[in-house]
Design goal:
Blueprint: E1 3-9, H1 18-29, E2 36-38, H2 51-54, H3 61-73, E3 76-85, E4 88-96, E5 102-106, E6 129-131, E7 134-140, H4 147-150, E8 158-163, H5 170-184, E9 187-192, E10 194-196, E11 202-204, E12 208-210, E13 226-232, H6 233-242
Parallel strand pairs: 1-2, 2-3, 7-8, 8-9
Antiparallel strand pairs: 1-13, 3-4, 4-5, 6-7, 9-12, 10-11
Length: about 260
């Protein structure tokens, strides 16, 4: 597929209320067509540090909701969910396709500023997803601050971040998304929530897509809660053919 049409859902997440958030997502999806739908980090609960109450089993209601939407819209759906697996809690991203194929990525860098590492277990593995002729690398929020974890030595076309990133650090969010696109010569996607969470922390959204040269793309939608973009494979390949910077990259090994 030469063109990948994507939708970023940017909404005010109801605190620890999956049913209400499912209703909100259903409302936003009406009349929207895309190949991939990206939802924020912990899309059904908000960024909760209470996994004992909110974590779901691997095939819990949030996963099943994403799976149902994927089938209904014949598109991939992606979001993270607090998940309990083998007696541990994870901030787990699910990529769910309409043929019931799915990929799991566990957040590597846990946000110590609020003690996320005290409640969740860090992931140990990077992933690359093959979908419709595109290769995509999933990451979650705070992972954005760690460029080594995102380094494009796996030949991906798109790196994406699902997030709950506060407005007070908006400059870092936008600057780092742009930096990841430039240094990895790839599209970079960031989807974020809006509104106040239970701690009164305000989120301004600022979901964005940058091309492989760091240029900010303009949404094709007038709906501020559903941003639509089209990624062009030919543009990406042309940029990589012209600017072969990755040929000069340093080799390294990540010790976990």
């Amino acid at each position: 597929m030469k063109t990948l049409r994507i939708a970023l859902l940017e909404y005010d997440i109801a605190w620890e209320n999956p049913a209400k958030n499912f209703e909100k997502v259903d409302e936003l999806l009406k009349g929207v067509g895309a190949d991939v739908f990206f939802l924020p980090e912990m899309f059904s609960t908000g960024f909760t540090m209470n996994p004992e109450k909110n974590a779901e089993p691997i095939f819990g209601k949030s996963f099943k909701f994403l799976q149902q939407k994927a089938i209904e819209h014949q598109a991939a759906f992606c979001a993270s969910v607090p998940t309990k697996s083998d007696g541990q809690y994870f901030n787990r991203l699910y990529w769910v396709e309409p043929n019931e194929t799915f990929v799991i990525y566990d957040k590597r860098h846990l946000f110590s500023l609020v003690g996320e590492e005290k409640h969740y277990t860090a992931g140990l593995e990077r992933k690359v997803i093959d979908y419709k002729g595109w290769r995509l690398m999933p990451q979650i929020c705070y992972d954005l601050r760690f460029p080594v974890w995102a380094r494009n030595d796996l030949n991906y076309d798109v790196i994406f971040y699902v997030a709950n990133w506060p407005e007070r650090r908006k400059t870092a969010w936008l600057s780092l998304l742009q930096a990841r696109s430039i240094e990895n010569i790839s599209y970079c996607i960031g989807v974020n929530r809006i509104g106040d969470d239970a701690q009164g922390i305000y989120h301004s959204g600022d979901s964005n897509v940058f091309d492989a040269q760091g240029n900010k793309l303009e949404s094709l939608s007038e709906n501020k809660e559903v941003l639509i973009y089209e990624l062009q494979k030919e543009d990406l390949l042309e940029t990589r053919s012209k600017f072969k910077f990755l040929n000069d990259k340093d080799n390294f090994k990540i010790n976990l």
